[in-house]
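Notes to self, PIN domain-containing protein:
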Amino acid sequence: MPEQAPVVYDVNVLVNVLVTDDSEFPYIAQVPSASSNPDADCLSIAFDTDDFQLYLSPHILENTTRVLAELGLSPDLIKRYLATLVDVVETSGGAIVDPPRKVFDVSDHEDNLILDLAVDVDATIVVSNDTDLTSLSPWHNRIAIMRPRDFVQCTVQTRRGR
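result:
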């Protein structure tokens, strides 16, 4: 079995798992799935543990909580979702990591914090819906920054080629 690659998901990916019209939470589909929600498919990819270890930070989890609350989701749903995220992280072999601040070269402070985590865990991929962040790919010729749909398609194609 090939080594699992560390991957980081941006806050917007985690939020979209719940807030899009086609959210199926708490159901996590198998990959390749028939889901029309690529953000949810990203969570499925991490959950099945074949290729990727998911890493998140306390900052990512706190911002996910804040955004979901601002969007009016119930505290109970948010709590259950965060517990699911922690389970997916642990199942994938990843971890919740509070990285040191090292990245300061991106204009958006929040993007720097995502990249801090990616650098700290030696991630090869960051998955984000943030155009400012995806436009940096490959960041320092080292980290691919992909949109969820592209990440899912690439993963599915790679698996079919095995």
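- The first strand starts at residue 5 and ends at 9.
- The chain is about 50% helix and 10% strand.
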